[in-house]
């Protein structure tokens, strides 16, 4: 078989693989991960179940592929946001920006957001039927977000705007979990919060971000004392 023919076949396989993932997205987003079956996905992709298993050995593997797409989109948004801020941006601006960015992601790409967050917060065992490459890439992309958060916390400590007694790893985990909790509450209870309490979703998210920032920020009185003692 000539090289051109081999390359053509590989390209065709890549196209079919991408189409299967897109079909799986439609099934997962239209129903749920729990309710979806490989038969549903095969039908949506207009292929046989046997053919589907040639490309993916489980719906868990497909779910990881979809999360990878979501993480890539979120990281692309983060990179663009940081470029707009500029290289000299302070840690506080970066932290607030990350909170707003995640909220924006939950609004503009709710299906990807839900796929990622339901995996992070659900009691689902994905140890079986997943190729190492898909699982490891998904984990690596998630760690990029965590690394950005921990590095920004370290920057804040160095700038003297964040408390120097913070454990940046634990603080990053707490901030992430807290923000996800707020965003999930907004996603599930927005109408209730707005109509019963008169609080808009973006107001609640902004208030939550500010409260989180206050909990780790060096207090102004302390800053003044340090400046006077210098």
Description:
With 230 residues, the chain is mainly α. It contains 10 helices and no strands. Helix 4 crosses helix 6 and helix 5 runs antiparallel to helix 9. It is globular and about 70 Å long. The mean pLDDT is 87. This is TetR family transcriptional regulator. Keywords: DNA-binding, Transcription, Transcription regulation. It comes from Paenibacillus donghaensis. One of its GO terms (molecular function) is DNA-binding transcription factor activity.
**How many β-strands, per DSSP?**
0
How many domains is the backbone divided into? Answer: 2
* Spatial shape: globular
* Count of alpha and pi helical runs: 10
Helicity, in percent?
Answer: over 70%
The average pLDDT is 87
- The CATH architecture assignment of the largest domain turns out to be Orthogonal Bundle
As for the CATH topology of the largest domain, it is Tetracycline Repressor, domain 2
- The CATH H-level superfamily of the largest domain is Tetracycline Repressor, domain 2
Gap from first CA to last CA: 77 Å
Unreliable segments (pLDDT under 50, ≥5 consecutive)? none
Structural class designation: mainly alpha
Keywords: DNA-binding, Transcription, Transcription regulation
Pfam families: TetR_N
Organism: Paenibacillus donghaensis
Domain HTH tetR-type: 14-74
